[in-house]
Amino acid sequence: MKKQYEICRHEGMQSSYEDASLVLLGVPFDGTVSNRPGTRFGPAGVRQELDGLETYSPYLDKDLEDYAISDIGDLMFPWGDTPKVMSLIEKEVTGLLADDKKVMLLGGEHLISFPAVSAYVKRYPDLQVIHFDAHADLREHYLGEKLSHATVMRRIYETLTNPVLYQLGIRSGTKEEFAFAKRATHFVPFTKEGITEMVRSIKDAPVYVSIDLDVLDPSIFPGTGTPEPGGVTFQELLAGIHGLQKARIVGADVVELSPHYDASGVSNVVAAKVVRELALVMA
What we know:
The chain is α/β, with parallel strands linked by helices. It is 33% helix and 17% strand. α1 packs across α8 (266-282). The chain starts with 21 loop residues before the first strand and ends with a helix.
């Protein structure tokens, strides 16, 4: 698959596309955001801080430079046509999987997870999904639309061949969403012990991890379109990510960074560090 993008300057992600086992793909789309737009600038915000972040993780005792990782840039698409954007994302991820790459998407709004998972299900029919978020995102439709960042996990649930969806950190949603979650998805305690039990139950099944950064408390991560008080700490999120080391993670995304709502730039740094830690767990 011929790539048209320049490789990221970040020293830990300078492998060639051909050599890389893990690729990062920016998806700057925020066409269905219902509150405060701006996630289209998320990939740029992450990359800005990755350039200043150490490649070494003292938490994991691993270094990005020891792995074949390539940032292949941003996907290009037209504005104003959500179904077409979904199709283009699915086609791109399908091509990357055909080249035997693991893919991490940088959002962008959370709806980008749906076409990515759709591509992954074709490659891995027994795919399971782990979802970190403040919001359930399980609505059947939102303002009459079935494709929305508020419906993304419902669409993903419907796409999975044998639906296994774990949801962590959820603290917002409609009564109907919570009722659906209680009967259809796996709400697990957001603790290290809960993660360990979850990974044990997943066994060797392929896993896609979706991290909506608003799972973090807005006092830690204000740079997002739909902040929700009462979130987890950064250390708790790290424990959750690190607890997935024994899982067979085949793909992932990190979404919902809106840099302009945090003038300090701290949210960009937080997002970049999440990307680094998740990349090392995947690698």
